[in-house]
Records
---
Amino acid sequence: DKADVRQTLFSGFNPGDTHAGVSNLRYGLDNWVYATIGYSGFEGTVGGERLKFSTGLFRFKPDGSKLEFLQNTTNNTWGLGFTSDFDVIGSTANGNPSWYLTFPKADYVNAGVDQPKTPRADDNPMFFPISMDIRQVDQFDRYTAGAGHSFVTSTRLPDEYRDRIAFVCEPTGKLVGSFDVTRSGSGYTAKQLPNNLYSSADAWSGPVCAEEGPDGAVWICDWYNLIIQHNPTPSQASSGLAAKNGKGNAYETPVRDTQYGRIYRIYPKGSKDEAEPKLDPKTPASLVDALKHPNLFWRLSAQRLIVENQIKSLAPALKQIVSSNGPGAIQALQSLNGLGALDAETIKSALSSASRGLRRAAILTTVEGDTSTAEMMIRDGVVQGADNRELGEVLVALSKVQPSEKIGAAILATQKAKMAEFSKDGTLRDAWQIAARHHAVPILVAAAAMPPEVAQVEAPKLNLAPSPDFNGKAGEQPSGWTLRNYSGKKEDVEMSLTEGGRNGGTCLKITAKGPVDAGAGADIAVKPRTRYRLSGWVKTENLQNRGGMGALLNIHGMEPKTQAISGTRDWTLLQVDFNSGNDDSILIHCLFGGYGGAVGTAWFDDVSLTETSGSAATDMITPLASHLASKGTPEQKKTVVNAFAKRTDAYAKSIIAAIGTAPTAEVAMVRKFKPDAAVHERGSAVYARTCIACHGPDGKGVPGAFPPLDGSDWPVGDATIPIRILLAGLQGPIEVKGQKFQNIMPPHIDLKDDEIADVLTYVRQSWSNDAAAVDSATVKKVRADNAARKTPWTADELRPH
């Protein structure tokens, strides 16, 4: 092959910031081209489908006919690698040198399950350079520019390296780290080894790519540049250098070299280059032979050429390789898939293989709608997987076949058989929900047929919520609960106890006449690393969102939260399951106007916080019933309700109640402050070049590193506070939405008054934020009033207690 053809497959990538663009284009084992992208993002139309995404992993068909976004990562993404079995693992900027793909976003969306960002695989983001002559701007002494994540797949390096050792570059540390990647539950653990593959004391060294070549050696591309940093742009105040941004949004400096680089090759002494096969599509036998090469590079190259040239005459030989279960079987199966010649019999043969990679390839290519193939993944009435990763992939595959009683019963039985694993493995739970929601009716009917003691497994656990029915009083307030106001005027919100609870007793009432984000909070002791369920009944009257989500329950400072309701709604059951992590105490909320603000009235009753760890078989069934309530047809809901109506136990009644709950309608956000399109266009441009690297395109920041702007009261309150932060910077600690952050935000005195006004207006009126615009006159005054300020602000200075 020669790179001698230039052709536009599709367009839509934003070139405004080159260090946040596309990288790591790789031909995948499934005949798609995989790539990563940073916050510059993509917006365009491919194959008739309008797409918009950023910061994550995507793939596209080699002919440009289809593009699919797979999963968001935590930041700019510069590393991607595949094992021979097609484990998909990569690296990002800002302290996450190893992450893994769970399942494609489309699988989550089709099931109505929220997709998490790529989970962390690495055990430690710190790095170990041999020289301290390093330059970093935000994440210090750790991987802040993790690039590449190539695995050893050939036989030239030691056997123990194969499909385990991955190389991750850190150009700011002048090193290439080695990570030992192993499977852990349904995910992976990447343990950083004590010795780097490459480490330099040369100040100019900056390795950005290290991967196995066609000869089996590791090839390292050294950018060889003194300045690795792209942004933030140094200013006179921050560094004594008044720099400016050039093309691609990188700051300009005379010591940034643009001409030279270095390439190194590493291999065991005395080892020979691996043989180079003569690949020739005109001689198809040469491609079949290359499918068995010991180096994945050549195996994939042969597969690509077979598919690219549509050599369908090879189908019989490829099927023979699959059935023989020998070298090249994975590539043979995927070649058949790419030729459109893969049949159910070949898939069934691969599903019974002893090869993990071949089984997984067959799982990923399961013929949609073919229940006979799907039923091969069931044995003794339980869905099978050699490990939890494979089990998760099988479950997701089952979401693509026609629902049946046999498959539904097996999915339910798997939940019972694997409850201990499900309780501690979020990715596996997601896979079960993706499968179960597709087969919801047969699963729920099967659950209804179980004896109550089997379905519920154990007696109800202790409710940890104080005064859950709000009958206890402490003065005029509910016992154990206090009003917490996070944004809006305190005088605009009122919390009280009132009659008219769900069962005729007392309940909690929250009323707001002005937009507030507030709630009743209760601090509760919990066990670390334990699963809990938070639930409660909520009713609303004329609750209008003003930037917030509505009325809901949440755990302060954690991602999990219940569904939110607004408008005028009767009593609705809301619930969420979560893991306490390392916390021994949490703050739960009956939340009003959460994550932005709202006006109106909400009532809360029968709040419950119970431990669900390990053995509670109902842990995953009730959310399934709630999903059916929202998405099922009347006939489907009637079928399940009739099945549970034959029982009289409390659990059956709770399922009937959940299914009988009216679907929660999506309520459009009502903005108090109407955005000015021209101002937002200018502000978005400033945000893209100044803020997006840390706070993200969605304003959600990076947990533990950079605070969120979406739903935070810091940017939307007193406008002079974010203005002062932009002018002088901010140093931690700072608490945002219950999370503490320690990083330093540099000043942006390079921004003009109108640019600060535009970007703050954009932030204050984007996502769930809804606050007044900022004008340049205000910025000018704040700049003049604080002209003597030379050091970053602290949270206490900006908000004295």
Note: The CA atoms of residues 673 and 772 lie 6 Å apart.
---
Amino acid sequence: MLAKRRCLWIWRGLWLLMLSAVALSVRAEPASLITVYTAKKIITMDPTLPEATAVAVRDGRIISVGTLEELRPWLSSAPHRVDQRFADKIIFPGLIDPHMHPLLGAIQLSSVWITPEQWQVLGDNIPATKSPESYWLRLKEAVKQDANSDTPIFITWGWSAPEHGPMTRKLLDERLGTEKPVMVWQRSAHAAVFNSAALNWMKLKESDIGEQYAETINYREGSFTENGFFEVAVTRLASYILAPKFIDAGFDRLNQYLQGNGVTTVSDMSFGAVNIQLEVDNYQRNLVDKQVFYRTVIVPDAYKVALQNGGLEVSFNLLDERLNKPSLVPQIVNGRRVKFFSDGAMFSQMMKLHPPGYIDGHKGQWLTPREVFLQQAQKYWDAGYRIHVHANGDAGIDNALDILQAIQAKTTRPPHSFIIEHYGYADDRINRRTADLGAAVSANPYYLYLLGDSYSEVGLGYDRAGRIVPLSGLVDRGVPVALHSDFGMAPSKPLLLAWAAMTRMTVSGKEKIPPRALTVDEALKAVTIDAAYILGLDRDIGSIQSGKKADFVVLEKNPYSVKPDQLREIKIIGTVFEGRVHER
């Protein structure tokens, strides 16, 4: 018995020595430097601690928020420095644009813009082109200026039929009188018209067009819309538009643009839609290698990836393996997210509407066959993926909600894992149904600003145009709402998007606010913490809180203190991305 006790004492002694050694080794490890940023005010978007004046950051994450005095327990035990460069500014959570397409944005920024509305991009003032005459004048000038360039095809973005008139292959051939390939990219970015030289350059013949594209391709008119554009035309353009010579300068401009607008998180809401390897190469070259100050959340287009990669089972395994691997770089975020498409685009009036439909009687387009949509959505839903669905018209949104109801009936999951993207036109019945089924919404509030006037006259009519992006009916029912740009459907300026949701004002200055617009708090949440929640990233980003990544935007003024119309004018001083400072 005594021997056993002696043995236990020996083991206890050895165990205490081991613990002491471990403790000594932990204490001996040098602590990383803590950087404390001070500000006139820190708006955290954390309801448990709404405001502060100091935030401590170590290794890219926030370790404490409060006053300098309240941070002292951390600072007294570790090396630190106090950075006071923002002492007279406002620190706010890094802004989130939860629905973007960085590749698409870089391509657009590499093309010539002729748009129906004015744009300010990196100091360039792009005037509004409002009439067919002015559009053709600018197009002819741009083609003439490009005549001696070494680009194999001239690409212009922004054509819009309501303002610029009809566009056909014959019109391009006759009115431009050029042998150079020309692509006129519609304002929605979901359609294009090509001249004869462009069709020849793409080596695309009418006999190459399958019957499934009868509604989306009119070869004789050079018109490619929706699936016909993405699945036929874009695949033939990919090797050129995704090559470094064409796209890299556009990426440089996009990176400057996003960082200058205070954006620290975006998503690619259609990854893999063109060519997975070319897209990966672009992100490596233009985001990772350049160490940009924002992250891109990868959200594959499940339907198009399946088309290009052997069907559902093969593509699911391909994506599941890729998305479940943690990213090793801060610029890319993987995870279980996919996207589907319900109906067509808002800017091209290809969204699907319930009766009475469009004023001129056209029908819009479905983008995914219903049985395929249901089968693929169920597969990813059952595997625990967040599902994002592009849906614009009231019929398109109902179709997406029908899919949610069906997959939820088979496999019940917590609410808000199914997100309606854009939410272009809906009534209060759809708002209620969205809430009842537990969906969330990521909306483009700029639709109303840009389209509210013209769609009152063309397409929808006055009453329905007033229901474009009706967000208050969602918020009042507890539906999480985020605001996005879908750049260039709107500027990727989250404070501008918040202003649009707060004012519900059109280009002409008319207000379409019944029953109400969003409050300033609701709108700012929709570009910070609620946008993070929509992406499933609210554990890491969206507010200034201990444990989260150190993503901040530095503002000249407090967005809660300015008048609503001044929100979009607040000067952005710089950003902090995972602890790295980027000043404008």
Note: Residues 1-28 have pLDDT under 50 and may be disordered.
---
Amino acid sequence: MFRMSVPIIGRWFGFVIVGTVAAAFPCRADDSSQGAAIYRLKCASCHGNSGEGTVQHPEPLAGVLSVLQLEKVIDETMPEDDPSACVGEDARKVATYIHETFYSPVARDRIRPARIDLTRLTVRQYRNCVADLVGSFRSDVPTLDRHHGLDAEYFNGRNFDGNKRVIQRIDPVVSMNFGAAAPAPEGFQSHRFAIRWRGSVVPRETGVHEFIVHTEHSVRLFVNDHQTAFIDAYVKSGDDKEFRGSIYLLGGRAYPLLLEFSKANQGVDNEKQEKPEVPASIKLQWKPPGGVEEIVPSRCLTPTSVPEVFVSTAAFPPDDRSIGYERGTDVSKEWLRGATDAAIETAGYVVERIDLLANTKPDDEKREEKIRQFVVRWAETAWRRPLSQAEQSWLLSIAFAQGRNTAEAVKWSVLMVLQSPRFLYQHLVQSPGLEAHPFETASRLSLGLWDSLPDKQLIEAAKNNQLLTSEHITAQARRMLKDQKAKQKIRTFFMAWLRVDGIPELFKDPDKYPEFSPEIASDLRVSLDAFVEEIFWSEASDFRQLFTATSIPLNGRLAPLYGAVLPADADFQNIEIDPMLRSGLLSHPYLMSVLSYRNVSSPIHRGVFVVRSILGRVLRPPPDAVAPLSPDLHPSLTTRQRVSLQTSASACQICHSTINPFGFALENFDAIGRLRTEEKAMPIDAVGEYQPPMGERVHFSGARELGKYLVASSFVQEAFIERLFHALVQQPIRAFGADALQQLRLSFEANGFHMQKLVVEIMVQEALGKTPSGESLQKNKENKPEIPSLPLFTGPAIKP
């Protein structure tokens, strides 16, 4: 009896093979009938006639092992009460039958094809959409200056009189200590001067950012608010020199920042009371989410001033990521509550600023007319397509009904629009009576590349029927990819792909690694970020460089720890280190540190990373939690020897025979990612091997050889493409055709593994994709799909 169900097999070795290996093992007619007969005799009593499970074993016989792997499990362990009853040819025949009939992903797709799901906005998309929705009524965001830092004006006097401006320049950071002197030898009084820094701050992470200003003198800091100071210590009392404030920001966006400093007695203008010998200094610091207190770095500052950004802080439950990518398929009570709270929060913000957003004034004769225009445009922008005259009339009649005043009408309209499924769901933009599919394409492009709403250019293209061909869509995707929002979307993908999006805590044994500190950990994350960013956004955008590059970004603090020579205050720059042994991401110190314990490396964590993230296979947890063997219990063993001992049991080897060799190949790097050539006075053994689903066994030694194998592997390429597709489209790639992944891989290869071109091609395929039946998702006017007539507003009853 075939007692081990596939989910249990999956716990031991639950790999998802990207693509199919069934073609490598053709099932002859006689094999199929014999395999079916063996299955009915020895397996069906436990697993059901079609692998659906039974009362005793309810888990379905469905998994992700290859035929060879499945055959090996059957040959060695099945049936559980008599493993010798199904071996050799019998094991091969039953494995092939099971795999091709109902076990493999391809077989399951044949039985129940993958489909495109109706999805709501993810939390990330919701926050971005409302930010850009409000922002669309402000002035356009200018292109950010290529220079980093803040525009600085230095004045000879206590105030910011333009006639007394002595210096104007770009300061990379705000960290000055003037002592008792003036900012410059000439043009200033040492006891009376002022400085104003203007520009924008561009955080990398989403979450609460704490800003800290250190100074002995008067200071005001404005962040994302032109009117109200975020930190106001301009008229000081007491001896406080440190001032703090926290604010929630969305990563990748620019927020206006203004910092004003004055060395002088505030209040009464009495120059005689001011003492020139009083020292003056100022530092602008922050603590980003998961980071450390540091000077706000130049890379996160720009001299370009931008409009304010509305940021919703309503609490949402996390989105589902159970199948490897973020998606909005569940609509829980908690999510509905979060959406309602966010709508109320947004409505309150809009009502307070309605005259500014509607470009009117309280005494404007046309104020109500302009506000009515605002209401219509608000709905059109949120719903991502024009409104018919009937819809406009209906919306305005509801908003301004029952004698509501203007503020009530605005609040009602904002709430109705944001609670409508046409806003909350990703692709409900079509409307009865309108040829709307260009607007659906615009919505798909903007949500895919920006996690946000279409901009004016994209909507204009949709209005002019310039989103109907692959050429049209390609041109728009290329344009959009240059936007800051696309850069943040790509960064978010890479952090999730490398499994460091949660900003893992990184602590090391201070006795063994005394140089390692929270500041080092923060710098290493910046280094990884910069490494990926430089390769992706380079002209070549070569995927292979991610695994073969020999240089990494280091600054003055990291350099001595990793054997490089830089000035202590040096900013990040590419430095080649250990070129014969390092290999891109596989040996990056941040990943090596994250994939280690406090005091020793972890071949298991590193191997799992390669299997999951790089090879694209899914490993399910082992049946029992097993604590690692402490190095103290086996002080004479190397890490490799200790891990081999711990995972030597046959049950463990089903998984670890694949996991361990990848981790062993990275043993030249210690728990903080430094190069080492020996451990326990023995040479490092970095030899490994791997049996891919198809082809011959592969042998490698060290990160360089492993990297060369990985970049040449079609399985690795397809795994990367699939993860990127899921991140952009948030739908299963198989729903776009059985050959969609293979076609993308062939195109990827033909384009020299150019990642930016791959992003564009994915968006084009998604916009002009095919359903599982092969029917085009794009419909012409004569063959327009039936779109259900949805209510404009659904959701909890809200009383403004």
Note: The chain is about 40% helix and 10% strand.
